[in-house]
Structure formats: structure tokens, C-alpha cells
Amino acid sequence: MGITAPLSLLDYETYGGWQGLRRALALSPDAIVQEVLDSGLRGRGGAAFPAGIKWRTVAQASAAQKYIVCNADEGDSGTYSDRMTLEGDPFMLIEGMLIAGLAVAATKGYIYIRSEYPHAIASLVKAIALARHAGFLGPNVCGSGKAFELEVRKAAGAYVCGEETAMLESIEGRRGIVRAKPPLPALQGLFSQPTVINNVITLASVPLILAQGSSFYRDYGMGRSRGTLPFQLGGNIRHGGLVEKAFGLTLRELLYDFGGGSRSGRPIKTVQVGGPLGAYVPESQWDLPMDYEAYTAIGAALGHGGIVVHDDSADMAQLARYAMEFCALESCGKCTPCRIGSTRGVEVIDRIIRDQHRSQQLVLLQDLCDTMVHGSLCAMGSMTPMPVLSALKHYPADFGIAPPRPQAA
Fold first, then answer.
1. How many whole angstroms separate alpha carbon 379 and alpha carbon 400?
2. CATH number of domain containing 372
3. Most buried of 79, 128, 323, 329, CB within 10 angstroms?
4. Model pLDDT for residues 381-390, shown as the tens digit of each residue
5. Is position 3 within any domain?
6. Torsional sign, CA 129, 133, 137, 139
7. pTM of the model
8. Coil, strand or helix: which one is 78?
9. What is the per-residue pLDDT for 22?
10. Residue 50: what are its φ and ψ, rounded to 5°?
11. Strand order in 67-72's β-sheet?
């Protein structure tokens, strides 16, 4: 990316393009799935579910038609790796979806892309047309006798359609409302058929895995977090941008070695990791390795790799309020904990800020967050409490809560 002309098939091939696809065409579907399993690749959209397990489930399902769906509805604050890929190296995504189709016997793919990305949409549409003309898409992929076709579907601006089942509803032409699970989309997904759903970065990682072998990819990272993640620096940071590194570096390294500290020159107070539903991470936790399990253990999430920086002028009570307000605006409305809980959350935080029965309201807020976490149908409602509770835990003074007195000796 940044080296090749994005829409040049010659450039793409010169720098290793289509090697993964050609190797996949020589392998059995089971062998392709096994390569992805062995690589340790996990979903880069935020859930971090092992991609190979999802592919294997779809591959083993019995159906006349199967689908590959790419979730390019990149709506998290401070994230842009999907957009950069779609605009800067679209053939990488196309190749990844082709390999996924061969692995699970799917002949049709859809790319669901947010309407706010007009340049990415235009780039992708042209890339698909070029790939089709060159024989990489269509009824006879690279002369293999196997078919695969791609179609772009433009989203309508709803954040909740980043949730996979709401996205499926939208692609099918209905309002984007979350489906209850089970059935899982891997078994009854798009048009009720078995469907692989991965995000852009997940699918774009597949060509390298097939070209270089699973061990090459697996040798990056740490623990169960294998490979690399494009960390996206944004907010109050001197050098914003995308930094692709293996899992295991620290937030402090990202903030200062790559980001150069805050843009304002003031001390960094907090960092929201993982989008608008991600936790606020205080300085005491900046030396933890960037790893899915390490962040889960502290009540945080790496999510899609978005990192938004705030300096010491940030009001954490107002940021917590914004999380609830955002959920209230973007909720699909299907489940009560998300639809009503977020609205009540705004009201409760407002009362805490105004010091109206603060102690009782703090108890109520904790109870409300617990209900949202355990009662919501999808991550929209269950993750909204994450920024709220982390702000409350690490920055109580911003909510008017006095720090605990030191114990007498």
C-alpha cells in the first residue's frame, strides 16, 4: 500500500499479488481452511473470533448456495484501516474473498461498505471490473472451472449495521435490525444460506497466509493473538496515522515512539482503545502488551485497532455521557436494555454531574450497566457500559467523587 498504483493489476502481481490465490487453487478446500486455522488468524473487526473455525463451519454446512460477506461498514471513531485498504490496495481484499470462496465452496460475495466512503466505493467498483476482465472473477476463475462473483452494497449510515446480523438484514433490503442468535450466520446467514462474514483486514490478511504459509504469519504476535494489527492513531496525537505491528507492543510505545505525544503538548490523560464502545485506558495500564486476552483481563478491548487520545483537559464524565448518548442515537431499538438503558444512562449521568443524590445514582448506574451488559442482544448494548465504567473507575474526580482516604497506620 502506497508503493503500487491501487488499480494496476500489473503492479499488484509484481509485488506478490495472486500468489495466495494460485496456491489455493492447487489445494483442496479442507487444506485451505486448515492453513487459515493454523495461522491463528482471528477476526480483525473486533470480536477476534478465529477465522478458520468460522470458515470450517461454513465449509461443512450442506447447501446449494453459500456466500462470502465482507463487512466494510467501518464506523468506529478513529478507525480508517479498512478505508485505506479499499482505496490503496483493493485487489488484496478481492483475492482474500476469492480464497475464502474456494475454501467453503461459495460462489458469490458481497462487500458491504459505508456510504461515507465514496472514494473507497469508486476504487473498489473499478478494481472488481478490472479483476473480472482479467479472469480473476466470473464463471471460470483463472481457468479453474470454479465460479466466483463479487457485488458492492452501499450502507445507509447506520452504525448498528456494523453488527453482522443487522448488516445481513440491510443487504437483503430490510431495515438494519439485529437478529437473535442462534441460528448463527455461518449456518443461516445471507438469504438464510451458510455465510462467511469477515471484515476487510481479516480477508485482506488471507492472501499472505496462503502465499507464505501459515507458520510465516503465526510467527508474529504473542499468545493467542497471532499476526499483525493495523493500529490507527487519532485524536489529540502529534503524529496520527496507521501503524501495522505484531501484537505485543505497548500502548506507551504507540503513543510516544510512533505518535510523538499529544498534539496540544499537554499530558495525555486517557486513551480510548477499540472505538466508541471501547474502554478508557489510564496511564497505569499503558505498559500492558497489546493482546486480545491481556486487554480483556482489564475490562478493555482492542476492537478494530482504533486508538483515540485525550489530554488532561478532557472531562471524563462528559465522555461517559457521550457513550450512552451515542448508543441511544444508534441503537436499532430491538432490545430493551440497549434502547431504553442508554436513554436512562444519559439521564443518570446528568444527575451524577449535577450532584442530585449522587451516591444513589452511582448505584443505579452500576445496576443499569450490568443489565445492558448481560441483557442486550448484541455488542451495541453490551459494550456501551465499557467506556462508562472505565471512566468512572479510573477518573472518579471527574464525576465529583472524592478519592478514598488513606488508611491510618
1. 29
2. 1.20.1440.230
3. 323
4. 999 999 999 9
5. no
6. positive
7. 0.93
8. coil
9. 96
10. -55, 120
11. 149-154, 108-113, 67-72, 195-199
